[in-house]
Amino acid sequence: MKKKKYVIIVILFSTLLSTISVYLYQILFSPNFLINQNDKFIIINEKMNFKDIRVKLIQDTILNDVLSFSFLSKFMEYDKSIKTGAYNIKSNMSNYDLIRMLRSGNQTPIHISFSYARKIEDLSKIITKDLKITESNFMDYINSNKNIYGFNKQTILSMFLPDTYEIYWNISTENLFKKMNNEYNKFWTTKREDKSKKLNMNKIDISILASIVASETLKMDEANTIAGLYINRLNKNMHLQADPTLVYAANDFSIRRVLNKHKKIISPYNTYINKGLPPGPIRLTPKKYIDAVLDYEKHEYIFMCAKDDFSGFHAFAITLEEHNKNARKFQRTLNARKIYR
Predict the structure, then answer these.
(1) Cα separation of 24 and 314, whole Å?
(2) pLDDT value, residue 27
């Protein structure tokens, strides 16, 4: 009888031990997140405590078993070691793997992209949209530093080359600018710098001119030609007379037709009354337009006008007489389409 009781106790103990082992294994290693879902990001800021994180995981339909996550988090003391950041929770991740990642602060880099902005204030909204730093942090850094890697407030837009970049969500403002400057320096290879020197222009000047070319045309087929035209005008000490600079000076980007009144705007960006380049770029400058300036087409054109077929291409001219003919054609088309401003 005693032997039978002993066997029963052993069986019960073994069963209990197996059950506990299975449960512990499930707590530690079984998937508890994103069952049949895609990976998700969770952002943890400095105001969040463990309860906030748990609520967020539940609300975002990330957490499957709340009890097991809470138990292991406290056992691993994650509730006492919360680190801010952006974390990628992978499909079918276990409690142990997630808690270890969160507790170590092993963030997942996020991607930020920007392709178009007219002013640095516009870029500040775009670039900080998914970051911890705010627009105010971004602009305060610029306003409080007169010289940032050789750029001032008017030229700083040149440093930000449109692309997609990998950074951490909680990057500091200072490190964000450092990152962008490193990317800028990577782009400006020795080969590109040599081309810039042959033009007797520095890198910022190239970017400013490229921003004008980019504002003139979406057609890369003629970007090098337009770049060559403006370089011809600079070499002849002529006014650039670039209509996009008038739109920028007017601060009215709804303008479709540049008028004589716009040519009288008092602004350093008015290239009809000021010779040389404006003091800064008039938009973010795509890399391909910088290369279009560096590899400009050599020709004798000094005039251009949008074609009257509204194709987006330009009619180029060497003489003022030829240019005036092209301009009259375009103006007649504008009038026919009732585009007066």
Answers:
(1) 72
(2) 46
Nearest-CA neighbor of 213 among 300, 108, 284?
284
Residue 68 pLDDT: 81
Residue 191 DSSP code: H
In residues, how long is the chain? 341
- Report the DSSP beta bridge partners of residue 214: none
The stretches in the chain having pLDDT less than 70 are 1-37, 61, 340
Task: Give the contacts of 33 (CB within 8 A, at least 6 positions apart).
Answer: 57, 62, 63, 64, 89, 90, 91, 92, 93, 94, 98
**Token pair recorded at residue 122:** 């516009």
Which domains are delineated in the chain? 31-104 (3.30.1490.480), 111-187 (no CATH), 190-336 (no CATH)
Tokens standing for 29? 């290693």
Residue-level pLDDT at 3: 53
d(Cα 294, Cα 146) in Å, to the nearest integer? 28
Q: How far apart are CA 153 and CA 177, in angstroms?
A: 13
Residue 17 confidence (pLDDT): 42
Q: What are phi and psi of 46, to 5 degrees?
A: -70, -15
**Which residues share a beta bridge with 31?**
94
Take residue 117 and report the two structure tokens written for it: 């902005």
What pLDDT score does 330 carry?
Answer: 86
Structure letter (DSSP) for residue 4: H
The one-letter amino acid at 308: D
What Cα–Cα distance (Å) separates residue 241 from each residue in 42, 216, 221, 263? 50, 12, 22, 9
Other C-beta atoms within 10 Å of 172: how many?
Answer: 13
pLDDT recorded at residue 14: 46
State whether residue 315 is helix, strand or coil: strand
pLDDT at 12: 44
As a whole number of angstroms, the distance between CA 278 and CA 305 comes to: 21
